[in-house]
Amino acid sequence: MTEDELKVTTPPDSAVGAAGVTTALRHVLREMGPVRGAAGLLKLNQPDGVDCMSCAWPDPEAGERSHAEFCENGAKALASEATRKRVRPEFFAEHSIADLARRDDYWLNRQGRLTTPMLKEAGDTHYRPTTWEQAFTRIATELRSLAHPDQAAFYTSGRTSNEAAFLYQLMVRGFGTNNLPDCSNMCHESSGEALGRTIGIGKGSVTLHDVHVSKLIVIAGQNAGTNHPRMLTALEKAKRNGATIVSINPLREAGLGRYKNPQSARGLLGRGTQLADLHLPVRLAGDLALFQGLGKFLLDAHRAGRRTPGRAGAIDEEFLAQHTHGFEDYAAGLAATDWADIETASGLSRDQIEELGGLLLASEATVFAWAMGLTQHRHAVPTITEIVNVALLQGNLGKAGAGLLPVRGHSNVQGDRTMGIYEKMPQPFLDALGAEFSFTPPIEHGVDTVNAVRAMRDGRVRFFMAMGGNFVKSAPDTAVTEAALASCAMTVHVATKLNHTHLVPGRASLLLPCLARSDLDVRAGGRQRVSVEDSMSMVHASSGHLQPPSKQLRSEIAIVCGIARELFTDSRGRPLPGAPEADWERLAADYRLIRRHIEAVVPGFTDFEARLDHPGGFRLPHGPHDVRTFDTKTARATFSRNDLWWPQVPPGRLLLQTLRSHDQFNTTVYGMDDRYRGITGGRRVVMVNKADLTELGLADGDLVDLVSEWRDGSERRAPGFRVVVYDTPRGCAAAYFPETNVLVPLDDTAIDSGTPVYKSVVVRLEPTR
Fold it and tell me: Residues 6 or more apart from 369 whose CB is under 8 A from it?
């Protein structure tokens, strides 16, 4: 990176508008061309079309959708996935694995779609083409050679459809292991853990309608303008219905400033809609303290006799008495918590916290939304239980316009978990799965993502398969993760495009190119569709329609069925003893048969096929939202008592968070710009408060190495970052991932969830030599 390449300007105070439209169209035209591009965009998020792969934000009702029901980043994701560029066998003959490993993520993504199964054997320097039959045989042979099924781990990306995920976990459990790490382990696992223990279900409790009619929406640790842009339209609708919106985030993000809706004259030509009425620049990892402060405020207000519309006091005593457990212990804990500690931990004044408390008092229905800004800290689970505590105090569950909203990133990460992609699935699910397929699933818990890396590192896992994703760049401690993968006897990757994980092969490695979600999928049973589940438990159909890049491509479902058939059946196609009894050939040919099995195994999927025919799909049952029932030990929602905690940062050090730029989706980099933060032409930047830089003897534009420091005395280094003065709280800094994942040790994870602590990295800034 040179000074001439990277430019820094003042961040804008608004999001989308004409710039969002032109940027989206530029990507689509460059990658797809006008005809293919128009065909793709007009089907994106439509009832008869393809579900956007960019995020899990829900769609409006079928009759309420725009003809352009997509955002800038959705268009970028489509353009990337449906590009006309191809990576053929000749490409791999020209480029060695070592050569490709030196390229960056942006370059790799720009090369295009994989077209042919590729194999790398021990000693090979290049991938070479193979056949599907040879690939399936090679995988089955390798798996059978393992001393125990737990020597294999099977990773899943959130892009995978319900049908593919269901068959994948069936294959894995049929093989004899629960080693099913997935991307949720690295993002919203803390949410699932916190919600499961407090309200009895690890999913959000609101619908899109609830957002639209809410009186107050509190958004913590989430940059909607980049990570879930269609949420801005829902917030605009809520705003016009009278909602107040609060942003809680170390950085003031443009998306929660003014929203210029590109589908309205006000958005394109006018000033747009101001979304956030209040912004609280919380200190990194200070959200636990903030929500304890809000709980303390509400209890004090109740004792003082302050009233809230629709309630007798500041808290909902009737709801507490009928539906909750543990209130007295929670209240006692807050009474013993000092306001001075809350202010220190949160980085906010008591007046700032009480300003939001006053908005809670005035609200009859409040939605609490959050994302990975809260889930990737050491005390992430307690932090989210504190959000639940505040929601419970005012009865903000099970009524219109209120509830808990963890906003998922990957478009079907929630559906994958529903389908059984989890290393600790409950026994009723395993029993139903075994009964449906006449086998005995393993019951010993498997490994999550971090433990999968540990197991590979320690030689306990010798086979690794990934259904999508970029495992190396998603996981922490990059060098350790790379060495762990390279130590495997075999690595297998089902993918649409090349990424860095494919360039860290085991002794043998297979690249299996699959259909993308937007690709037309025609099998022996005719044209196929799949299903996905969004952040709000809506299940709906997704049907690709674009011509695939190669006739050799197979769907994820067909790939899983091909491996399972080779692994579980004899030469006549009969199940081997102890294997799941499934007709893999028929399942690969007709996805309706998979949905019949899902209906028999997974609660909430009665009449699956018929309900999937309904435009917009159907919502899965949610006890806390639907009928105020709670699947907990006490059959009540549970208050949590948590000690106040915050990171202790030594003098001369900063607390770093990793984050996305506006030109990326997870580890996929579409471009080198971050328009909403005023940074263009580069990614190796670190954003720091001006006063901190002065204190450290540094200046805007300096080049520094980021060196992380950990409790065990270890250090990690990421070299060559340009310092950018930015409006962030004192003591806090920010930089993009995956470039900074190298700074996070494998063993520093959130308590109880195992999520890497990407948002709480103690670093020092050393001038680059």
Answer: 217, 218, 219, 220, 222, 405, 406, 407
Contact 208, 234 (CB under 8 A): yes
Per the DSSP assignment, residues forming a β-bridge with 279 are 247
DSSP string, 300-330: HHHHTT---TTSSSSS-HHHHHHHEE-HHHH
pTM score of the predicted model:
0.96
Query: Radius of gyration of the chain from Cα atoms?
Result: 25
Side-chain-facing half-sphere of 423: CA atoms under 13 Å? 24
Q: Where are the beta strands (DSSP E) in 125-165?
A: 128-129, 152-156
Amino acid identity of residue 48, one-letter, is: D
Cβ–Cβ < 8 Å for 82, 32 = yes
Q: Which domains does the chain have, with CATH numbers?
A: 88-186+415-514+554-605 (3.40.50.740), 189-411+633-638 (3.40.228.10), 654-767 (2.40.40.20)
Is 12 within 8 Å of 19 (Cβ atoms)? Answer: no
DSSP state letter for 181: -
**Nearest by Cα to 497 from 661, 667, 659:** 667
584-639 residue pLDDT tens: 999 999 999 999 999 999 999 999 999 999 999 999 999 999 999 999 999 999 99
Number of Cβ within a 10 Å radius of residue 713: 6
Q: What is the pLDDT of residues 503-557, one digit of tens each?
A: 999 999 999 999 999 999 999 889 999 999 999 999 999 999 999 999 999 999 9
